[in-house]
Amino acid sequence: MTVVTRFAPSPTGFLHIGGARTALFNYLYARHFGGRYLIRIEDTDRQRSTEEAIAAIRDGLAWLGLEGDEPAIFQSRNATRHAEVARQLLADGQAYRCYMTTAELDAEREAARAEGRPVRIRSPWRDADPSEAPAGIDPVVRIKMPREGKTTIADKVQGDVTIDHEQLDDFILLRGDGSPTYMLSVVVDDHDMGITHVIRGDDHLTNAFRQYHLYKLCGWEPPVFAHIPLIHGPDGAKLSKRHGALGVDAYREMGYLPEAVKNYLLRLGWAHGDDEVISEAQAIDWFDLPQVGRSAARFDFAKLENLNGHYLREAEDARLTNLVVERLSRERTLDDVATTRLRDGMGGLKARANTVAQLAESAIFYIDRPVFPLENPKAAKLLSGGGAAVAREAGSALRDLDRWLEEDIEARLRRFAEEKEIGFGKVAQPLRAALTGSNASPGLFEVMAILGREETLARLARTPDHD
Question: What is the residue range of the motif 'HIGH' region (predicted)?
Answer without folding.
Answer: 9-19
